[in-house]
Amino acid sequence: MNTLLISLLGLICSVLLMLAAMPKFIAFLKNRDINQVTSEYALKEFKEKGKTPIMGGLMFVVIPIVVFAVLCFKGLADARTQFVILSYVLYCSVGFIDDALVIRSHSNEGLSAKTRLIMEFVYTLLLFVIYRDVIPMRVTIPFINAGIQIHWLLFAAFMILLYMAEANAVNFTDGMDGLCAGVSFFALLPFVYLCFANGYTYIGIFLVCILGGLIGYLRFNFHPAKIFMGDSGSLALGALFACLGILLDKTVALFFIGGVFVIEMFCVVLQQLSVRLFHKRVFTYTPIHYAFVIKGHKETKIVLGFYCLQILLSLIGLFIALHTL
User: Does residue 311 form part of some domain?
Assistant: First the structure.
């Protein structure tokens, strides 16, 4: 079957399955009182969202994988595709455990920071060991195309740090209706093109299925949200971006393609350092999207503004990636 046809079929099937399954999933969660526990960092205006079901991210992890497996079963035998899917699933499992503990305790006491980092460390190391032969252990500098080969031990450390950073950066962005999923959608588009352009057809089709899952999810997550993705979704998406950056040797371009996530994390880290060292705030509030609420902007306008910023950064990132051989 033609690659374009399979991709379109994967996109449509993922969207339709999400639209069909999500209402039942939301009802299932509500009946069991599986709701969002409001973050300690959330503004007062967002406290009422604590009654919204969580774990929506499970759906845009599971459904795209099922659709891809049905349409491209042979693709599951491809080592690079396995690397991408397993990265997605393993980090989803970390988020799922965290979400489950938060729900069970009816507080923000999920996995401890130490336990979560240990799990992410072990999973990423496992991925490196299993798929070491398909991972290009280099970082290519854009435009001059100087490929820097890195010793496997140093690259393993680099990969672990990148996975952890991306996962937590995406997690910071998940704070407004439609924000994280929409930004992720626009950030994935350059990688879809790069995968097909570089001959990673199966991965490209899988990413298209994820795009379909995100479209279906946004139908229920855009303001006013009926469900949140939780750490199950945000950590999975973060690992996916890290994996794609490494596999395609586009780690430099990744900082632009995932630019909104980088900005969100940078602001949080800078704020924390400033408060701890100088007892002063750099920003009105972090994560930075909340600062715009304090300034009087509506949530929907803030989200759309971040979408526009991400589209611009995705185009810049794609331009850089295309000049990285």
Answer: no
